[in-house]
Amino acid sequence: MSQIHYFLATVAITIAITFWAARRNSGRASFYAAEGKISAPQNGLAIAGDFLSAGTVLGIVGLFFAVGMDAAPYLITPLAGLFLMLTLIVGPLRRLGRFTLGDVVTHRMESPHIRIVIGLCTIVISLINLVAQLVGAGALISIVFGIPFNFAVGIIAALMTIYVAFGGMLAATWVQIIKAVILIAMVAVLAALCIGRAGGYAPLFDLAEISARSRDMFAFGGLQLGMFGAISLALTQVTGMMGMPHLLIRFFTVPDERAARRSLVIGTTIIGIAMATVLLVLGPAAIAFVGGDASLRDPSGGIIGGTNMITMHLARLLGGDMLFGLMSAVAFSTILAVVAGLTISISSATSHDLVLGFRKGRSLTEGSEVAIFRLAALVTSAIGVGLAILFQKENITFLIVMGQTVAASTTFPLLILAIYWRGLTTAGTVAAGLFGLVTSVLGIVASPAFWMKALGHPEPLIPTDYPALVTVPATFLVAWLVSTFVPARPARAAQA
């Protein structure tokens, strides 16, 4: 089979799942949360499928290729975030929420302003992550089919709109489940081929060290983060993981709190195994085999297609066109699954939080809310395409961390405070949410990665790409100051 056949088969399967789900969707509960009928093992696989995105399959290997073991924190710290999520958030989240994070934050402060703020935060976080996935998808398809990046991104956006508008959360869940199973199998196959080609696991590292030449790939410091940057990056990924809306809304798809906790344990176990394989096998193999192959270099000396495509080059070197085609289809399905979940997060926040907030609590009919949900999916696709074209040269993993920066500064503190602090007021919630959103976005825009690389300015406005070490504590402080010193009626006592 040619690569185009693998892609067409992937698209056919996912569209079949979408229309199967569409026949079973009966209202907003179906579109938002699959009516809470997903089992714990199924949701665990879906969580793994949602997490193991293009950033894991493509971006982390490319990052390891560029900076060696400095890529490790991008894999290790999110696992710490998942464990803390299990301890602090999952139980209360499932108990207090129904469809969106806005339901949880307003469980004792029913305020339209809070719904608007949490809806805006959810949209910004999910949109940044959506752009990361579209960048990976566009680069992949443009290389495989030789079509322009802009056109490739448009194809993904069109498919994404179909999945979400017709299939909702049920379709996204099953696409994520199937994709997770296939992805894990293909990563295992590729890892086995890497070890087999090297003649063993230890020789693989020897080959990688030879290919790396003067660079010590096991030495830290390649990213040149400094003490502030390293601590801030760790804080970003730990707390940002606990505030990622597209992962958190997955816990509304299971029947109860126990199933939510169990599904996260299953998902975290799968994620940990897959990420360890990527870091400890595929990363060194990329340096050993791709790094020394001159045919994979462009005239400027860089890798053809950029570092995001190193995994695909590795697949072709070890398994020929067949494995390249299979891995391309797997990476493609990975992106489709994740963008579907992100788009649902944005669409549900728009129809259930923003619209309800602006209507000041007046409910929509289920039909109207679903119609807005579908319209939001279409608008999200259009905006995502434009931003993906702007950031097409950026590393996928770094873009995902930018989304985590906003999550760490907004949804994470809002959820923790709403669940555990009885003194939180409506004014404190709104002020903290807006402060965290504005400062984290401004921090990203002013950073070297955005201000210099994306916008072309000679100097950044701030010296770090990771402002969370300032924005996260400051958001908690703003919530405390406003709740304590601004006259307002306190929220009802938390029942978490």
Essential attributes:
single chain, 496 residues, mainly alpha, Sodium/glucose cotransporter, globular, disordered C terminus, Na/Glc_symporter_sf
Task: Give your account of this protein's structure.
Belongs to the sodium:solute symporter (SSF) (TC 2.A.21) family. The chain is mostly helical and 496 residues long. The protein has one domain (3-393): Sodium/glucose cotransporter, CATH 1.20.1730.10. The chain is built from 20 helices and no strands. α8 (112-145) packs across α15 (366-390). The longest helix has 50 residues, at 149-198. The radius of gyration is 22 Å and the shape is globular. It starts with a helix and ends in an 11-residue tail after the last helix.
Approximate strand percentage: under 5%
Highest CATH level, the class: Mainly Alpha
How many strand units?
0
Task: Report the principal-axis shape.
Answer: globular
Number of helices: 20
What is the name of the CATH superfamily? Sodium/glucose cotransporter
Q: List low-confidence stretches.
A: 491-496
Largest sheet: none
> Roughly what percent helix?
over 70%
**Average residue pLDDT:** 81
Would you identify the CATH architecture?
Up-down Bundle
Sequence of secondary-structure elements: HHHHHHHHHHHHHHHHHHHH
Structural class, judged by helices and strands?
A: mainly alpha
The termini sit apart by 54 Å
GO molecular function, one term: symporter activity
Family: Belongs to the sodium:solute symporter (SSF) (TC 2.A.21) family.
Transmembrane segments: 6-23, 44-65, 71-93, 114-135, 141-165, 177-198, 218-243, 264-290, 322-350, 371-390, 396-420, 427-446, 466-486
Membrane topology: Multi-pass membrane protein
